[in-house]
Amino acid sequence: GGKVIGASFIIELEFLNPREKLKGYDIFSLVQYN
């Protein structure tokens, strides 16, 4: 099996606090929306 080390998103909805919920992972997003 593999190990998840990060996540990529086209749009990051900042009001959902994704970085807080995915602590410990590298997060990449093309667009950040408040």
Automatic annotation (TrEMBL):
Native source organism of the sequence: marine sediment metagenome
Record's protein name: Adenine phosphoribosyltransferase
Species lineage: unclassified sequences, metagenomes, ecological metagenomes
